[in-house]
Amino acid sequence: MTAQPYVGITGPVSMDEVVSLTQAFSDSGYTMHSPHIPMLGFLVSLKTLHDQGTANRRYVTFSKLRTILEQASDKVLTMIHYNSREMATLAVQVAEVFDGLYQDGLCRSLQLNVAWPDVEQVRLIKKQFPDLNVVLQLSQSVMEGRTVDEIAGAVLRYENYCSYALIDPSGGRGKEFDVGESVNLYNQLRSMSLNLTLGFAGGFTGQNVEQRVQQIVKEVGTAEFCIDAEGGLRDKRSDVYGDDALNMEKVKEYLRAAARVLP
Fold this sequence. Notes:
By secondary structure, this protein is of the alpha/beta class. It has 10 helices and 10 strands. It has a single domain, classed as TIM Barrel, CATH 3.20.20.70.
C-alpha cells in the first residue's frame, strides 16, 4: 500500500507557529482524514541535534521539539527533515533523533535531505524503525548532470526502504522549479511502478500553487501526489539563506489555493 499524499509546510520553529499552522490546515479542509493529509516538516541537522545552534531561522531547537510534536502529532503528519554530512553514521544519528519520538508515536516520518544516502544506512534505519515513512529528497544536487533514466535507476535502489520520493530542485530556497523537467522525472518514476508516493517542491506560494498544480495534474493525469512549501512562505530579513521568518498570511493564501486543486 502506497503512502497517502500530503500538502506540506516545512520550517516551523515554535509552539505558536505550530498552533497557527494546524489551525490553518484545518480551516482549509486538510485533516488526517482528507484525501491529501496535512504535513508539518521540522528541520534538524547533525549540528542542531547536538544543540550547537545555527543562524538559520528555519531550524527548530531540538530540545524543544518533543513538546512541539506533542501539540501537533494528532492533527498533522509530523515529519523530521534531517541533513548531515556524516554519511557513514547516518543510521546512528537518525536513531538519536527519533529516540522516544518514534516509540511514543509523536513522529514517524523522516525526509532525508541528503544527496543519495548510503542504501545500507537507509536499510539500517528501516530495520530499527520499521513503521517509519522515509522520504527520499531528489534535490538539485541529485539531479544535476544526470539523465532522467539515470536518476530513476538510482531511486530504484531505495524502493524497499522509502515511502515517498520528493522532486525538489529548490531545496527550500524558494526557487520555482521547471515543471516540464520535474514532470518528466515524475513520469519516468511512475512508469516503473515503484511502491512510492511521489511529490513536488520548489517555490510554491499562494500566488502560484494553484496554477502550477493544475499544470502538473494536466500533464501527469492524476492529483495523487504531494506538494511541500518552505521558502516561498517566508519573509526575508536579509539575503542570507535561512535569515527569514514564517508569514502566516502567506501560509493561509497557499493553503486556500492548494485546497482548490488538491482536496
